[in-house]
Input
Amino acid sequence: MQHFMTLRRHTVTKNDLVNLGDGQHAIRVLQGNVIIGDRTIAAGEGTYAGVGSTLSGDAEILQFTISGQKHEGANLMSQEIHGFATAAILRLDQITFPPGAIAYRHIHAGAGIRCLISGELTIRADDHVEIMPPFKPWFEAANSPVRAEASLTHETTFVRAMLLPVEYSGKPTITYLNTEDDDKPRLQSNHRFFDQLLDFENLQ
Output
């Protein structure tokens, strides 16, 4: 079975009732407030929304969707993710770097899409270097080495959705690779919004 992660950025107005569509969703509210079921999610918060969920409110959001098909009309990114047969953990979290902070060369145990929401981040992979401005998403496959360098002058924050092996529920996924970095400071902070078990045998 194929699994795709899709990222959209869109605005919900107070008269809208938005059907989030097929799949299972991670929502990060950028501005305003949204209502999903009986829950109100404010700016700066993130939440899980299951199959068939609807959303209302007056807000700007990032919507990460896991489904069995690629969404060609996605306004930011749609990416196939391999390696999960029956189940996985969907994690939504947020990483914040103070000015000049570095995430030294490392890997993560799962694949996913990242989207910068403030500042600037230089991503140094083994085969390329790319400078990420706000709202330019990027994909990292599981166990792909990267080094991330934040803006020297501004706080930098990105939102991340990953699919993880189920044994990583509630656990960190990062592994640093270079022994010469062992004693260097880890200045970035992580805020985890949720870990949600996904049953791919019943994924729509």
Observations:
- Residues 3-81 form a domain with the Jelly Rolls fold (CATH 2.60.120.10).
- The CA atoms of residues 121 and 150 lie 5 Å apart.
- The mean pLDDT is 93.
